[in-house]
Amino acid sequence: MLLFLHGSSRRLDVGTTLKPRGDAYEEEWGKTDFYYALELNRPESALSHKDAVFLTTTCEDVGLAGGCEDYIFLVEPEDPASITPHDQNWSSLISCLISDGYAVVFMSSYHQPG
């Protein structure tokens, strides 16, 4: 059995199926200075953040991945083959460059999956 962790700001019932938040996710994160730069530079093969459910393997990684730590749930994927890695180093690089005042354009050639 393959298990992961998911952070949430609200309590969820046991058995809840986690689904991407779509437009609501984009509405919330689109207010940051980096979200659209990440989306603009996202490789076509990578899933959009708004179409994903973020899972981690440690409690410490929930916060590092931008998840809320109010509630942390143990998650068993319905289809383990659908799990794809998120390149935190790639997205952190773009976010840090923007925070330092750099314009970020066409970073997708840097993307290193896994």
Task: Characterise this structure.
This protein is of the alpha+beta class. It has one domain. Helix content is 28%, strand content 9%. It is built from 4 helices and 2 strands; from the N terminus they run E-H-H-H-E-H. A two-stranded antiparallel ribbon has the order 1-2. The C terminus is likely disordered.
Q: What's the gist of this structure?
A:
This protein is of the alpha+beta class and 114 residues long. It has helices spanning 23-29, 35-41, 59-64, 88-99; strands at 4-8, 71-75. The longest helix has 12 residues, at 88-99.
Keywords:
single chain, 114 residues, alpha+beta, 4 helices, 2 strands, 28% helix, 9% strand, disordered C terminus
Q: What is the SS-derived class?
A: alpha+beta
Portion in helices: 25-40%
Largest sheet: 2 strands, antiparallel
Q: How many beta-strand segments?
A: 2
* Mean pLDDT over the full residue set: 85
SSE layout:
Blueprint: E1 4-8, H1 23-29, H2 35-41, H3 59-64, E2 71-75, H4 88-99
Antiparallel strand pairs: 1-2
